[in-house]
Design brief:
single chain; five-stranded antiparallel beta sheet; 10 helices; disordered C terminus
Length: about 280
């Protein structure tokens, strides 16, 4: 059962919905309830266009590392996440526990679990008004896993939690208050379909000069222009980070440039033209 102090924390969540304090308040409640070290919440208005709603950790260093992973995740890492492809089975909310060693995609597991040392994950999937809210609570590898008592707590509060997340998401979107990490959108704040079209356009521009870039080199450079990290490109293209670096080095040599900034200068005008008019 929830204590009176924890019930007060539920009231704090209600009072901060739509404000900058909501994410920290949300994390504080579940840190106390579940004894967790990190929390992430992603919203999926459509399957190809997630946003990061909450990313919090026990300390600033942990929080910043989690936010870097969250940026990689919405840039394309989510495509390899087995949790968001899991069917809820007709129920509006699903609560379950997963372990890092159950993730079969090695590159995905290493990037999002093994490297940050996150071993135990308690997941809440909730659908409301056509949006999937995907919440994860994490414990590190030196901790014990989640048990029946934590599942019981989450099943008790999951309905409230998803409704609060949905209301907060609506209020923040309508207010346009995106100045902090309340939302982290995919590169260029594009929809999934538009993002893919932009990548294709950039790749075509990059291979238009015969004898310069290969298709793969152009694909890597297009992702760089769009702001994807090496890790995100690795996951999206199903190649290792070292292979990404090799393609980037060869492409830069062919283009006669030596930095990401120079690549931006070469193709930023094409990005702006494409986004402002070519898909209208």
């Amino acid at each position: 059962m929830l204590s009176s102090v924890q019930l007060d924390h539920l009231g704090d969540i209600v009072s901060t919905i739509g404000s900058r304090e909501f994410g920290q308040t949300f994390y504080n409640l579940f840190r106390d309830l579940l004894d967790v070290e990190e929390c992430t919440v992603f919203s999926f208005p459509d399957p190809a266009n997630p946003s990061s709603l909450i990313v919090e950790g026990n300390c600033e260093k942990q929080r910043q590392a989690a936010r870097k992973l969250a940026s990689d995740y919405i840039a394309g890492g989510f495509l390899n996440d087995p949790n968001v492809r899991r069917p809820i089975g007709g129920q509006p909310i699903d609560v379950y526990v997963t372990e890092a060693d159950s993730i079969f995609n090695t590159a995905y597991r290493q990037h999002y679990y093994d490297t940050p040392q996150l071993t135990h994950e308690l997941v809440v999937l909730g659908n409301t008004n056509g949006t999937l809210y995907y919440t994860s609570f994490y414990r590190r590898k030196d901790r014990h896993g989640f048990g029946d008592s934590e599942l019981e707590i989450m099943n008790l509060v999951a309905g409230f939690m998803v409704k609060a997340l949905h209301r907060h998401s609506e209020l923040v979107r309508h207010s346009g208050d995106h100045n902090d990490f309340t939302f982290v959108h995919a590169p260029g704040d594009l929809s999934g379909q538009l993002r893919q079209k932009t990548l294709e356009h950039l790749k075509n521009v990059l291979v238009s000069d015969p004898g310069k870039l290969s298709q793969r080199e152009a694909e890597i450079c297009a992702c760089i222009v769009m702001g994807y990290s090496t890790e995100a490109i690795s996951l999206n293209c199903s190649i290792s980070p070292n292979t990404v670096a090799t393609h980037r080095k060869r492409a830069y040599a062919k283009l006669g440039i030596s930095s990401q900034n120079e690549l931006f200068l070469c193709y930023f005008s094409a990005v702006r033209e494409f986004q402002s008019g070519m898909l209208q």
